[in-house]
Amino acid sequence: MPIVTVQVTREGTTPDRNSVTPEEKAAIIKGVSEVLLDVLNKPLDSTYVVIEEVDLDNWGWGGLPTEQYRRVRARAQS
Q1: pLDDT for the residue 26
Q2: DSSP readout, 12-57?
Q3: Which backbone phi and psi does 20 adopt, to 5 degrees?
Q4: What is the biggest distance separating any 2 CA atoms in the chain, rounded to whole angstroms?
Q5: Distance of CA 19 to CAs 26, 27, 62, Å?
């Protein structure tokens, strides 16, 4: 019985939102479950998917908090 945890930033996918929609969560659950079925032959009804929404200020990479990292990248790309 696989248990998969997916972490996403709580901000959502557009600037006017502050969370992932129920429809997006359903698509994540379906997609992850189907990958485990296709790759490991794990039945859909034995796969658990947990989605954790992480506040943006609790997320970072490249040695920087996420918002700062994004500003740095945006400047570099312009």
Answers
A1: 97
A2: -SSTT-SS--HHHHHHHHHHHHHHHHHHH---GGG-EEEEEEE-GG
A3: -85, 140
A4: 47
A5: 14, 15, 24
pTM (predicted TM-score): 0.78
47: which residues sit within 8 A by CB, 6+ positions away? 1, 2, 3, 4, 32, 33, 36, 37
Do residues 45 and 1 make contact, with C-beta atoms less than 8 angstroms apart? no
Residue-wise pLDDT for 4-62, tens only, equals 999 998 876 676 777 889 999 999 999 999 999 999 999 999 999 999 999 888 989 88
Cβ neighbours of residue 78 closer than 8 Å, sequence gap 6 or more: none
Per the document, the length of the chain is: 78
**Does residue 2 carry a catalytic annotation?**
yes
Please tell me which residue in 2, 15, 22, 43 is annotated as part of the active site: 2
